[in-house]
Amino acid sequence: MIDPELIQLCADPRLEVEIVQQFVSEMNASDHLTIFVAQGNRTILVPKPETVEQAIETTREWVGQANVRVGLTQYPAGLGITDPSEISYELFDNCENLRMGTELFGKVLRVVTQWYGGPAEPAFEDAIYAYRTGWFEGERIFYAEDPEVEVMAPERSTAQAEPGTGDAAQAEAEAGPSEPPFSYQDPNSASIRIDLSGIRVHNQEPPSSQ
Questions:
Q1: Distance CA 144, CA 61 (A)
Q2: Do residues 55 and 49 touch, judged by C-beta distance below 8 A?
Q3: Of 77, 118, 166, 178, whose CA is between 20 and 30 Å from 65?
Q4: How confident is the model at residue 156 (pLDDT cuts 50, 70, 90)?
Q5: Per DSSP, what are the bridge partners of residue 69?
Q6: Tell me: the pLDDT tens digits for 117-138?
Q7: What angle do CA 78, 25, 105 make, to 5 degrees?
Q8: What's this model's pTM, rounded to 2 decimal places?
Q9: Residue 75 bridge partners (DSSP)
Q10: Residue by residue, what is the 3-state secondary structure of 38-97?
Q11: Which residues make beta-bridge pairs with 43?
Q12: CB under 8 Å to 100, separation ≥6 — which residues?
């Protein structure tokens, strides 16, 4: 389980500690250098980085060609990136990755919670899926306006793979991919930037919004 002190120091303060702990657990990253790459309907097996420099090099190689998720929060590496050279060590710094990941997931959770009309137990699970895929109710979730709604910690844990395997996280990511190429917007930026990581895992279009 992630260190509560790291959560207090780095995570989005709008999220309860229990939410952050469960979110990071669901991402199932073995360590801060974890990289998951999906291209089309395939998972790309990349060499496990031993250093931050190697992690950055691998991420730069695949961003723009595949859906690349990195670090403890499996943050979408290409989100808001206009050039692979912009990939830096911050993505693999525990504190920075936790900050970016929880800010993004917090937004997703609030959007989903608002859709439910308020705090609801299924919202967390749906938010996890939306964070992994980039889609919710046929809409690009990372483009959505951040609503000011109350969220709650999940009351029960969802099924998880054995620690360190990454199978559950990879299976979920393959089940619902990122967006079409060059389509994401950085949720932390007021201006629209180009995202190079949104390669769709499935060839089918997402369901239309309700």
A1: 29
A2: yes
A3: 166
A4: low
A5: 36, 76
A6: 998 889 999 999 999 988 999 9
A7: 45
A8: 0.73
A9: 70
A10: EECCEEECCCCCCCHHHHHHHHHHHECCEEEEECCCCEECCCCCCCHHHCCHHHHCHHHH
A11: 38
A12: 73, 75, 90, 91, 188
